[in-house]
Amino acid sequence: MDNVSQALVEALENNKPVALATVVKTRGASPRNPGAKMLVYPNGSIVGSVGGGEMEIFVEPLLVAPTLLLVGAGHVGAACAQLAKFLGFHVVVLDDRPEFVTPENFPHADERIAGDIVAEIGKLEITPRTYVVFVTRAHTLDAALLGAIIENDAAYIGMLGSQRRVLTVKKMLKEKGVSEATLDRVHAPIGIEIHAETPQEIAVSIMAEVIQAKRQK
Question: Is the pLDDT of residue 182 over 90?
Fold first, then answer.
């Protein structure tokens, strides 16, 4: 397998967007023939080369599935993961309890990460095609997690919790210097109001709001 093909396979397997450029026609002197390919990443780096000179190039953007970053591996998290996968998302589950983040509990997740969730979330690549959903068990976790990612380019950030919990988290972040305008990015309490009660119904409410945000972009 050549370098371009290998890099393309790796990008798709890791849900990374790329563009594939293929030489269609050349005119005059050119170091590459029709069929030569080059892979271009969002940061401008490349694999392969199409050479120089006058030529026609076909560029094919290979967009990946949007990512749902699900923080919290409880019952609501499990229901969200299943529904998100059905809706075509690349599902990443993050929790600090290894016994919860298992293939048995999350068979629909593409990635399962267990550990210090504040540290781990800082290692993840969050892009304008990332939708972040917090369904954790404690407001102190929510505050630390939001503080770690709220300034990034996520398409959507939502947090599960009561109005009181939401106000507590926002107060904690304001005390750390986070502006009101930045906090307004957070959908909290998360979800569209459908009077949901069960974990499955709450997941429908959450994913409906995620889809709404996705379609409005």
Answer: no
